[in-house]
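Exercise (ungraded).
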Amino acid sequence: AQSVTQLGSHVSVSEGALVLLRCNYSSSVPPYLFWYVQYPNQGLQLLLKYTTGATLVKGINGFEAEFKKSETSFHLTKPSAHMSDAAEYFCAVTQMNRDDKIIFGKGTRLHILP
Amino acid sequence: DAGVTQSPTHLIKTRGQQVTLRCSPKSGHDTVSWYQQALGQGPQFIFQYYEEEERQRGNFPDRFSGHQFPNYSSELNVNALLLGDSALYLCASSRGQGGAFFGQGTRLTVV
């Protein structure tokens, strides 16, 4: 079975400060890992994904995440927060099979303080 | 490329009624998955369709059913609606392990 735990349902950072959203996963098989962003009244947009290879993954809007197998973590970071980054962020995991179902965390609401 | 499109965007139904939600996948995608996202929660997997067959199913009752058409579009049907079925229903399409692309969702309100 697979699961995802996102630490902190709400995170507040000042504009220009480092963004760090934490995600830990559990998987009995090698995982594929994702971060999705959801703006109010919108669907989910894929920010970045880890499948195989390089453990530091770069995504859109300046975000990146690092897969750490030993820590079962896939934390999302951005060096400098922008007001437009305010949204809900979901960490997700799936198995290395074709088109397997995606298991989502409960989400972290990111607030950007002026 | 229009991406994943869902219709309608909003829907209000009465308890006990039936509802059908529709999804057109991103061009080139052959697999469609449906998710339910309750307020303040992460999306929960309902089921997945591939080659017009239900390939996987999450922990949802039989009131939830679906269909995939030869053009890969899909429908989600919910019978005997309950108040607890009120949620955002998301459709995702994919092909291989490139990651799923999600539509904007259908906001269902059951009154």
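Further reading is listed at the end of the chapter. For now, observe: Chain B has no helices and eleven strands. Chain B touches chain A through 30 residues (CB under 8 Å).
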